[in-house]
Each structure stands twice: as C-alpha cells, then as structure tokens.
Design a protein that fits this description.
With 304 residues, the chain is an alpha/beta fold. The chain has a single domain, classed as UDP-N-acetylmuramoyl-L-alanine:D-glutamate ligase (3-Layer(aba) Sandwich). The protein has 9 helices and 13 strands. The strands form 2 sheets. It has a 9-stranded mixed β-sheet with strand order 5-4-1-8-9-10-11-12-13, sandwiched between helices. A 4-stranded mixed β-sheet has the order 3-2-6-7. Helix 1 crosses helix 8 and helix 4 runs parallel beside helix 5. The relative contact order is 0.14.
Length: 304
Amino acid sequence: MIVVGGENLIDLVQSSELPEFKAIPGGSQYNCALAMGRLGLRPRYITPISSDKMGDLLVSTLSQGGVEVASSRPNLPSSIAIVSLDNGQPSYQFYRDGTAERAVTQEALLHIIPRETKIFQLGSLSLCDGIDAEIWSDLFVKLSRQGVNCSLDPNIRPSFIKNRAAYIKRLETMIKVATVVKLSDEDLSWLYPDTDIEEKALELASWSNAKLLVLTKGSEGASIFSGSQVVKVLAATVTDLKDTVGAGDTFMAALNYKMISDPDLGSKETLKEIGNFAARAAAINCSRPGCNPPYFHEIDTKAL
C-alpha cells in the first residue's frame, strides 16, 4: 500500500496567448498520486478535499485514475493556482489560505493510514508554512520511525516560505529519515546558494538514510545516488513539448513505482533503469498540456 499526502488544488492554466485559462485538477502531491494510480499502484490519497464543485472534480479525476480517495470533504473552498506559461515553462500564483486541503490534524490522518502501508509520499506546498506543514513533517518522521519507507519531493515554492531557516531545518530533518528523496537543481540552488549542486547532493546522500537520492536537472537529465554508487541518466526526448507542468511529479511517481517493483538497488544497471523509466514517464507528460501522466502501457520499457 502506498499513501500520498500533500496539497490538492485547481490549476487555472493559460491555454493560449490570450488571457484564457483552463481549470485542471492539480497540486504537486495530487499529481504524484494520479501518476502512481495510472501506473497501476492503486495509491491511497489522504489530504482533505473540498466539498465544493471543484473538489468534486478533484475526487472524480483521482478515482478515474486508479487512486483510492480516503480524504475527508470539509465545507471549505478548494485551493487555486494561476499557471502562466512562457515557452512551456510554468510560473505559479497560489491561493491557499483557509482552504480545505490545509484542514489537517495528525490524529485524523493516522486514522486513515493503513497499517500495511509500505510507502508514504509527501512534499511541496504542504511543507512550506503554517501548522499544517508541521503536522505533515511530524507525520513523515513518525511513520519513518515505524518502518514505513518515506518518500520526499520538496518541489520548493520560495514565495510561500515565510521562515527560510525553519523551513530548511524541517526539510533537513525529513531528508535525514527519508528512504527516497528527489531534489531538482532549482531546489538545491535555493537551499544551498553558491554551492556545487552535484557535490551537495552527494553530501546529502552521505548523511541521509535514503536508499535513493535523485538530483533532477531538467533537459540535462538526472544524477542518482545510492550508497557509494552514482549514476547519471539522460533526459528522455520530448518530440512535441506542450509544457512541463507535472513533469517532476510524474518522475517522482515513477521512482516509487520502480522502488516497489525493483527494490534491489545493488547495481548501476538497476539504478540506470530506474532513472530512464522515470525520465521516459516525465517526457510523455511533457508532450501533453498540463499534468497528464502516462499509463504504464504507454511507456516503452523495451527502449530503456
């Protein structure tokens, strides 16, 4: 059983050069749950989802994608993100104050997390600020100490981080106990300015308990760290780029898929296969508007 926590929201995505926007279900961890569902993992999503019409869309999209929705449905509004595109690269404005997905308590979350949970996935906006960020991070550490493989994707949103020092301390505590960590080059550059990101990733891998630490670098591919092994993988080719919305979330979902199906990380060949699989999944997502991750049968595993 895989459990996913973290934000859900409605992305209002720019659809043309005119000021026109399309409403698409989203949120980094929501996207990750959807991507894992489409890969056939049947994850359980536990973050509260609004009882409004947009919340209904969020629930139905997950359910249709093979996700078990265990979320409460509070009478609070859905969170909103305005997504503008520049040559396929998204920029975001978020509106989350007083919304349903932030109405969490550790007691309620623990109540709906099955005892047989093997992986707990968390990250992004849910860790930025507020009481809910502390609740999520405390839950992450608690589950790791209970033997759950905890998977972390910070996907940092600097504009939402009000206390940089507290945020970095929270994140480093989670990295220490995580089983899988994915960091982008932008994440590491923001966390540790004026450092070599490859060297910093190696340093983090050395003091983290992570079996797998992945540094993604966009079109330059990714570096994978596991124990003393380091493997570099190329980015998969995107023949018709639409945008990169949800690419990192899809990559993270594919990492978790491979951790379930190929838990033996003893060889560089296995690590490279994991990286190539995740890169291919992310590339397919980039060939479609918004976050629209692939089903397993769409990924050509023979080409990996």
